[in-house]
């Protein structure tokens, strides 16, 4: 970077100390990229940002230790073809790093998982057998799981219901958190799996902290020690300094184009947890008998999965700061936000209730226009496979649909909330919010 460029960058920082005006001279005008209301919010959030960095450093240190323990080296990025038998230990090393990072006995991290929904479905099918009940303990599960469970969609596509698995839900408490009294007597002898969704999904609800997840697991296991606990970990990874397997979850699953892909992993997902259960999930991804030993991946994908995981704590930290800023700015404008401004974060999602269809679409249009990729594309609401409602997505991202990159989306249904997430640096949201304030 040239000296001139470096000076320009420094002076445009909202934190750079304002240079003293020379005696009798003119004050230097500092360029600032932010809308004044956004700049004020940024100034007021410095203590919260420092707290995010504290968690980030602890998570980065755990990730680095896991890389060293698995002796990750360039040959792991070599890639493989066909069955994947010529893999030079990359898959094994990646699985081992991931398991170490989330405190699990084992993990399977693969580009062959299409999405978070696919990884979660493999985990659920690994845990449940005909005659079992699936119990969702945090209200309705994420929209795309409805067809996996069989509470929506056609019969005979191989949903859990088709295989004789029944389903029940513990509704959320009035404050949007877990209903502890209901959960204390909800688990029966036939409950084969309790599903805990860590993040809010498209519901106006609280996301769950790892402390809440621990309490829920203890309650579930007290009622039925054989009931397995599966956590939908999408959007929760690295937001706190511990992960659900560290507090007793049997399995967790998620997507690599969300938090643990660090914004650069091009595809894939993971399942982690108890060794025998991860093996069963691997058999659902591949086939019984093949397990984790198959599945090739090109070298550039292997490298991106390692590097994305290494970067993930940092990117998640930036996304959390972005969420804090959105909450601060939008609530100051009178919009309801979830989580509340400055409340502790348990995922990277920040919801804003916009109240009507037009405002939701306008918000998404501004975000899309401000994105680096496809800024000229007008997002339109439409039907998306897996979703019952029309959904609108603004994702001018380098990876298609990546929500670790700056993006927002929402179903076109009451209360017309937009769900914002991602970003490689909080300043991206600061810039987007400036544009949003001009329109909303
Ligand atoms: C809580 C939660 N679980 C699962 C999913 C499904 O993930 P994917 O879109 O990768 O299938 C989402 C998607 O946003 C989500 O928010």
UniProtKB/TrEMBL annotation:
It comes from Triticum aestivum. The lineage of its organism: Eukaryota, Viridiplantae, Streptophyta, Embryophyta, Tracheophyta. PANTHER family: CYS OR MET METABOLISM PYRIDOXAL-PHOSPHATE-DEPENDENT ENZYME (PTHR46658). Pfam families: Met_gamma_lyase (PF06838). Residues 1-29 are annotated as: Disordered. Residues 17-29 have a biased composition (Basic residues). Residues 1-13 have a biased composition (Low complexity). This is Aluminum resistance protein.
């Amino acid at each position: 970077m040239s000296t001139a460029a470096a000076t320009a960058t420094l002076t445009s920082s909202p934190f750079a100390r304002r240079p003293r005006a020379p005696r009798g001279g003119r004050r230097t005008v500092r360029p600032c990229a932010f809308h004044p209301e956004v700049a004020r919010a940024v100034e007021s959030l410095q203590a919260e940002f420092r707290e995010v960095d504290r968690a980030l450093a602890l998570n980065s240190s755990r990730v680095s230790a896991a890389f060293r323990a698995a002796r990750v080296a360039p040959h792991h990025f070599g890639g493989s073809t066909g069955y994947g038998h010529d893999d030079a230990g990359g898959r094994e090393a990646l699985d081992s790093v991931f398991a170490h990072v989330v405190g699990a006995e084992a993990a399977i991290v693969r580009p062959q998982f299409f999405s978070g929904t696919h990884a979660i479905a493999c985990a659920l099918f690994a845990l449940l057998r005909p005659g079992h009940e699936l119990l969702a303990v945090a209200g309705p599960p994420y929209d795309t799981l409805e067809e996996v469970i069989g509470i929506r969609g056609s019969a005979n596509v191989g949903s859990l219901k088709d295989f004789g698995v029944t389903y029940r839900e513990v509704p959320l408490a009035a404050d949007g958190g877990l209903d502890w009294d209901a959960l204390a007597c909800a688990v029966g002898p036939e409950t084969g799996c309790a599903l805990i969704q860590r993040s809010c999904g498209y519901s106006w609800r609280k996301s769950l902290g790892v402390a809440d997840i621990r309490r829920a697991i203890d309650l579930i296991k007290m009622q039925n020690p054989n009931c397995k606990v599966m956590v939908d970990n999408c959007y929760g990874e690295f937001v706190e300094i511990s992960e659900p397997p560290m507090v007793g979850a049997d399995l967790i699953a998620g997507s690599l184009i969300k938090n643990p892909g660090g914004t650069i992993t091009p595809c894939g997902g993971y399942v982690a947890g108890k060794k025998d259960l991860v093996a069963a999930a691997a058999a659902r991804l591949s086939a019984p008998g093949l397990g984790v030993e198959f599945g090739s991946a090109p070298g550039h994908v292997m490298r991106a999965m390692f590097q994305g995981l290494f970067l993930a704590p940092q990117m998640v930290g930036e996304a959390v700061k972005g969420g804090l800023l959105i909450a601060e700015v939008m609530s100051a404008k009178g919009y309801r936000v979830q989580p509340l401004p400055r409340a502790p974060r348990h995922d990277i999602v920040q919801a804003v209730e916009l109240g009507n269809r037009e405002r939701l679409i306008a918000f998404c249009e501004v975000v899309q226009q401000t994105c680096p990729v496809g800024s000229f594309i007008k997002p339109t609401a439409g039907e998306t496979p897996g979703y019952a409602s029309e959904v609108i997505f603004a994702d001018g991202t380098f990876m298609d649909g990546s929500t670790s990159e700056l993006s927002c989306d929402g179903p076109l249904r009451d209360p017309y909330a937009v769900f914002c997430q991602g970003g490689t640096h909080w300043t991206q949201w600061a810039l987007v919010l400036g544009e949003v304030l001009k329109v909303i």
